[in-house]
Task: inverse folding
């Protein structure tokens, strides 16, 4: 899809300047009405600050929130991908029992609001399951190396139980959508492919691995990428269970400084940058997939 | 192949059954030890709190500061344990205490009969009151609490706080709009979308000092007086007794009063935040 380069015409310029003027007018109006005392110069210190004790630059409150959001989204996406793949295969499998598990899972999760699900999970389910996993014993570890690994990969030891609750709740939720994406991808492959590979003597697992899945992957990628980006955005919802991610940190900071607009705008910009970076990365990946597919 | 499949299905089913069976088991496995005993054994006091200027807030470096933070830190120090703060959304702080996310709420929580039915409170270690700050143009000429008790008047307050209770009691005819955070409520009155905000002193007067051309104080001082206590899970006499006597001890020392003056009557701490 590499088309000819189009030149920017006069109509485009007029349109662009029109949009620019409208945006500027909106900002001006909002400014007038809200009569807000802007105070942007205090924001940078919440992003990055110089720590005099250690003599190093360290992330400020908001940037720490970004790091938590990244870790949260990463683990939630990974777990959701595993859940989604297993459930997607269940839904397209031959066993009636597995299909029922798959559709039961999707049916339950997709029909409840994410906010309510996260509350329910946090207060009732997470609390009962986490002690069983003996996480508190791990977090009380004396080993400095282990606690360093935990801190950089997951969360502060004190925050770990809540963090894991959040990751699992989010993963189970997003997993339902990934299940459907995987199912749709597999079912979109023509039945003839199954029949032909069966005729060649492949077992069902081999058919899936060598014939169906490589073809399905290219159709799965675009909606899957959308779901990944969605996970980053949905991760802001777990701020309600007090996980110290970007939105939560921002709201805490607003409560302390009363700089409502500056902080919301900063948070907005940070989410946008995160999601845009993710989109561009996926686009890259899709292009390489296409290139690999061409010689076939 | 078929045998393998049947086996995996059976294993799956077994896992499901075990999980379901384990739930009531884990639920009833709560220990009978008092919170104080648990804290001493663990070496960490977990304190639930929420940002509320100047009770508890984060400074520029991300460190928690404020009146409650001083109280909780001193409490842990006197117990010989480490303190760990768990910032929690105010609207969900009681369920979080009840489900064991932390040991005690030290967060400027007003003692209300309705709250007291759900949790146990220590003796009051502080008293606060509700104050009112109004918009200069929207609420022009309105003075006294009574002036705001009229249909058509809109009051903003923080969701789940005693400000809401006070507003409902003293201004039953006004419409009350609730916000998750105090900052949003104050933004509403600054923008003139509501007539006034009800909030714990001294924030309303601080805000009116910050925006003198847009806000004013329709009443002098506060219109309620509320006791503030530590909240703990019900039925723990040992813990309650310890907290009560600790409060008596630091009060007699004059330490509580000295801290209170620092956070509520001066703003020497303002430079630590911005």
Result:
């Amino acid at each position: 899809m590499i088309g000819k380069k189009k030149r920017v015409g006069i109509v485009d310029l007029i349109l662009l300047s029109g949009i620019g003027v409208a945006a500027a007018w909106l900002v001006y109006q909002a400014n007038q009405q809200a009569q807000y005392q802007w105070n942007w110069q205090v924001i940078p210190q919440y992003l990055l600050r110089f720590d005099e004790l250690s003599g190093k630059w360290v992330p400020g409150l908001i940037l720490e929130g970004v790091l938590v959001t990244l870790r949260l989204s990463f683990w939630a996406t990974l777990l959701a991908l595993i859940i989604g793949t297993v459930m997607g295969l269940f839904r397209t499998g031959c066993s009636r029992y597995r299909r029922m598990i798959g559709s039961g899972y999707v049916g339950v999760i997709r029909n409840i609001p994410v906010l309510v699900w996260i509350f329910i999970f946090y207060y009732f389910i997470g609390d009962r399951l986490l002690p069983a996993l003996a996480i508190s014993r791990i977090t009380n570890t004396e080993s400095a190396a282990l606690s360093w690994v935990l801190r950089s990969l997951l969360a502060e030891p004190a925050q770990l139980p809540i963090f894991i609750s959040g990751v699992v709740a989010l993963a189970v939720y997003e997993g339902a959508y990934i299940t459907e994406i995987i199912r749709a991808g597999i079912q979109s492959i023509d039945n003839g492919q199954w029949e032909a590979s069966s005729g060649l003597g492949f077992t069902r697992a081999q058919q899936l691995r060598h014939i169906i899945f490589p073809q399905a992957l290219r159709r799965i990628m675009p909606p899957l990428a959308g779901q990944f980006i969605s996970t980053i955005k949905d991760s802001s919802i777990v701020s309600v269970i007090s996980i110290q991610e970007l939105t939560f940190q921002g709201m805490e900071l607003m409560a302390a400084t009363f700089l409502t607009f500056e902080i919301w705008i900063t948070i907005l910009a940070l989410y946008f940058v995160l999601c845009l970076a993710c989109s561009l990365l996926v686009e890259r990946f899709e292009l390489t997939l296409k290139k690999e597919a061409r010689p076939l | 192949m078929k045998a393998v499949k049947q086996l995996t299905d059976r294993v799956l089913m077994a896992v499901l059954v075990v999980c379901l069976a384990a739930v009531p088991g884990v639920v009833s496995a709560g220990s009978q030890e008092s919170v104080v005993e648990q804290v001493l054994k663990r070496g960490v006091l977990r304190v639930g709190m929420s940002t509320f200027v100047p009770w508890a807030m984060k400074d520029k470096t991300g460190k928690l500061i404020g009146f409650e933070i001083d109280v909780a830190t001193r409490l842990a120090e006197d117990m010989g344990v480490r303190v760990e703060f768990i910032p929690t959304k105010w609207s969900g702080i009681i369920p979080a205490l009840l489900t064991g996310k932390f040991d005690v709420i030290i967060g400027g929580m007003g003692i209300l009969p309705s709250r007291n039915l759900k949790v146990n409170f220590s003796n009051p270690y502080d008293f606060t009151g509700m104050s009112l700050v109004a918009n200069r143009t929207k609420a022009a000429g309105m003075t006294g609490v009574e002036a705001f008790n009229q249909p058509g008047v809109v009051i903003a307050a923080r969701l789940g706080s005693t400000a809401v209770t006070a507003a409902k009691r003293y201004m039953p005819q006004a419409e009350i709009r609730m916000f998750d955070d105090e900052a949003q409520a104050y933004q509403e009155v600054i923008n003139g979308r509501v007539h006034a905000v009800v909030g714990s002193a001294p924030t309303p007067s601080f805000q009116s000092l910050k925006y003198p051309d847009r806000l004013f104080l329709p009443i002098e001082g506060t219109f309620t007086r509320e006791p503030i206590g530590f909240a703990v899970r019900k039925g723990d006499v040992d813990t309650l007794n310890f907290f009560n006597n600790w409060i008596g001890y630091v009060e007699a020392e004059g330490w509580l009063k000295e801290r209170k003056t620092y956070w509520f009557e001066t703003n020497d701490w303002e430079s630590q935040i911005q």
Observations:
- The radius of gyration of chain B is 23 Å.
- The first strand of chain B starts at residue 44 and ends at 49.
- Confidence is low (pLDDT under 50) at residues 25-30 of chain B.
- Chain B touches chain A through 46 residues (CB under 8 Å).
